Amino acid sequence: MANRGLIQAACVRAIKSLGAEAVALCEEADFNQVGVREASRAYVISSKKTSSPYLDVDEVLKAAVECKVDAVHPGYGFLAENTELSKKLTERGIAFIAPTRLAKGRSTSENKKFLGEIAVKAGVAVLPHSAVFENTADLAGEAKNIGYPLMVKAPAASGGRCIREARSESELKTAVESVIRQCERFGYEKSVYLEKTLTHPHVISFPVLRDKNGKSIIFPELDGSVQFRFRRLLVESPSPSLSKEARGKIMSTLPALIDGLGIVGYASVDFFITENDVYFVDVKETIQHFHGVTNLLTGVDILREQIRLHSSEPLLLQKDSIRSEGSVVAVNIDAMDPYNNFAPSPGKIERMFVPYGEGIVVQSPFVSGDTVSPNYESVLAKIMAYSGTREKAISSMESALSNFRIEGISTTLPFLRGVLKHPDFLNLKWTGMQMAYENRIQEVLENINTPEEEEQAALIAALALSTDSNASTIMASAEHGGFLWAMFKGNRKLQY
């Protein structure tokens, strides 16, 4: 298992459930993480070549050979789509649980073109887009042809990485440079393409399992429309906003699409849905952050099945046996400060209190006293709420978030509480670009506290004015509409 955090722990459990040994790779600082503790064996890695040993192809390869493993599971991110690692593992007879394109020898750039061609053949509309460019000097003309606003993406873009929006020609160069820098950082091919932006799409994904013989199962869709910086913060399944007509259209084209791609294992097929149209976006064959939502809704362990199918075993699941009643709402709690434009908030977790209750599932690699590293993604925990209806699942999630306590660092808990109360979310009007503008962030945060909590915040701020050296900053923030809870920055942060 060549990853860390939540996905490492989930993979270790899936591997062991199949009766196999799970070897967890970890750097020294991650030795006490739950995935490492639960693994059959641990192998400590380090690197002088990259910012993270998890990105070092030779280090991961060395560990795989020395441990005599049959397969490497990369999780998501890091080396999950790395062509070099795939090739070197294959040369040594080690399976790589990774996208089909790697086994077919297609680069991410070639694969992006291939995906578009297969989608069109399957009868799915695609957004106006450019070819993939390595020479970014040619992009200005393409951008004019497509029209602003548009997205600048790397072919391997995922999880908010390597994707930026350009709303005008003046923003294009900066957006391209930002994407290229991220490609370099994460070891992706340094190429980009442009894609037309839809201003109010719902972001819908269909999880799929398919075996080598072509048998496949399509699972209930996930709605990931609550995003910030193109990263999903909240997911629902099934989607409450997907019409019967749109769902039927997608379901009629999906079999031809996944068969045309020759997928083996797991895939997430992504679409943008507007009031009148359905657009194909991408196919991701690496396991996704919110795969646990499908597990909870259907009772199927997606990771376990992915590993089985990559071992050339047949798909044994039958469509009629998959549970699909009820509703799941899931959130990621991140170490970011929503009152400071979601700035990272690494540091020591002084105390963490986890909620519990019927239908509530909490997953976290952290416990009280752990330190959140500034070097990796900021997910502290994942909370999932399952109930018979969407309304009951939302109510359960509200209760869970109210009872989740983290001391020592800032988190996205307040923002998530605000989303659950927001009329657009409750009335199915929340769309994928909702949080693209800062004023919408403030709009969400302004209404999360009760009158009693606001009174407490006012008292804290008043006390701070007489004791805090930052009194002038507090007053200035108040005069410009700053949030009382955000104004008080003591030595100890408490997130509710």
From TrEMBL:
Transmembrane segments: none annotated. InterPro entries: ATP-grasp, BC-like_N, Biotin_carboxylation_dom, Biotin_COase_C, CPAse_ATP-bd, PreATP-grasp_dom_sf, Rudment_hybrid_motif. SUPFAM superfamilies: Glutathione synthetase ATP-binding domain-like, PreATP-grasp domain, Rudiment single hybrid motif. Residues 1-440 form the Biotin carboxylation domain. It is an enzyme of class 6 (ligase). One of its GO terms (molecular function) is biotin carboxylase activity. It comes from the Bacteria. Residues 116-311 form the ATP-grasp domain. Its EC number is 6.3.4.14, 6.4.1.2. Keywords: ATP-binding, Ligase, Nucleotide-binding. This is Acetyl-CoA carboxylase. It comes from uncultured bacterium contig00132.
